[in-house]
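step=predict obj=Trans-1,2-dihydrobenzene-1,2-diol dehydrogenase n=335
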Amino acid sequence: MAEEKVLNWGICGAGKISNDFCSAMMTLSRYEREHKITAIAARSQEKAQKFADIFEAPKAYGSYKDVANDPDIEIVYIGVIHTEHVRLSMMMLEAGKHVVCEKPLAPTWQECKKVLDYAKEKKLLFLEAVWSRFFPVYDAIKDEVNSGNLGDISMVTTQFCIPIMSVERLCRKDLMGGVLLDIGIYCIQFACHVYGEMPEKIIATGSLNEEGVDEDGCVILLYSGNRKASLVYSGKTASGNNTATIMGSKGQIFIDDCFWCPKSVKLTDTTLENKIPEGPSPYNFYNSGGLRYEADHAFKLIRSGQLDSPKYGYKDVEMIHKIIDEISKQIGLKY
């Protein structure tokens, strides 16, 4: 390719996370040369137009199908409720669009596999947007783990506790609610980031609400060589000190609150920081400016012809969702 043309984005969903993604993407130093928010789609034309006006998108659609049919759009960000993730991902892939879909892609590995296999068949990029993996400090964490500076790593701990069970989409079974898919997935991805393999054994416990969706969980992942990960997450407690630690025989890495979207990380001999700038539209979630990194990563993958991310690729989706499947089985979580 002679030059890197602008990547035209279609945005499905005009809610909080889509706002944060668009606002964060616009903070990229090369935004105007590499990215363009071309179209917004929502469940109503009015809502789509209001969102489009905020981000100066030239097109607003009251139907997601219109995004699929728009020939100007090369990539689609899916930021709707996750009960729609598989359907819309398949729709956009069928239309020949690359896809960045908010997590969780689906409640089961088999449903995730259906989407990934179709993306491979269509020779298109598909990213499940576990945004943690695209933060520069997560690269630094992986490099430090692989360097040997920590010695033999034998323990990983994470905690993610915030009072969110009053949120409608999380407390209802028909909306595939629960905290495992919402915040527990961040704890799981962190352990997988460190160890890079499936655990040999999983021990999980959690409590379900009256509708049968999970409100909290404690999970132990047991790996070969007596290595372990201890994961704690809850949607019904007061906010905790939501940190993560990697412990080795020679040293440790500490990631302060919020470990899934950290502003900084304390390595064995230095502290590294991310740039998390404010965007043109106020953010709704912690450190949402970091969403800029997944947008930038998608651009680089597409323009270099890579269809599987080295930071969070198909093997990572498989590993994490197979662990989710086993945890769901053990705690009695069924959709």
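step=describe
The longest strand covers residues 214-223.
step=end
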